[in-house]
Amino acid sequence: MPIVAAAFAELGYRRATTAELAERCGVRENILYRLWSDKKAMFIAAIDFVYEHSVAVWGRLLAEQEPGASAAERLLEYESQHHGEFGLYRILFAGLSETDDADIRAALADMYRRYQKFIAGQVRDHRANGNGAGCPDASLAAWAVIGLGTVASITRELGLVSDRQRRRLLSEIGRGLLSGHSGRAAKNTK
Q1: Domains of the chain from N-terminus onward
Q2: pTM score, whole prediction
């Protein structure tokens, strides 16, 4: 799956052929068809892989205990340094251009809902320690964090800001979303 996902990230959905996917995997096409019914099923599996890969990385990070920082803060700091480094976000961007296909649309919606649920849980846990009195709803903050990650991916893809600026975007604005003080966080970046 990592090889198939990397191919879709590089080539997109339409340009990736099953012959190319098989070649990159070092197998014949019929081997891929033993695992998936068609290219669309392979792409949907790649969408799921984006989520599973992130959660596996985050799980390893959360298993490490770090004094003083909440799990949400540790995840945010990690993402500010590593967000998008594998280019898997490109699979999601390719998928967004295929949302007229009900299966791909459903796979993307499910994946984004799982991200939102995971992030909302981290925001709630962070705020339960007194870090968010009077904050906007954690589920909405989670959607805003996802949006922030999407913007960071766009700026990476198009070279719109420097790596340092992108790290600051994720770290500083992300902290504001966690604690519900995005206005203050934005003022402190001037």
Answers
A1: 47-187 (1.10.357)
A2: 0.89
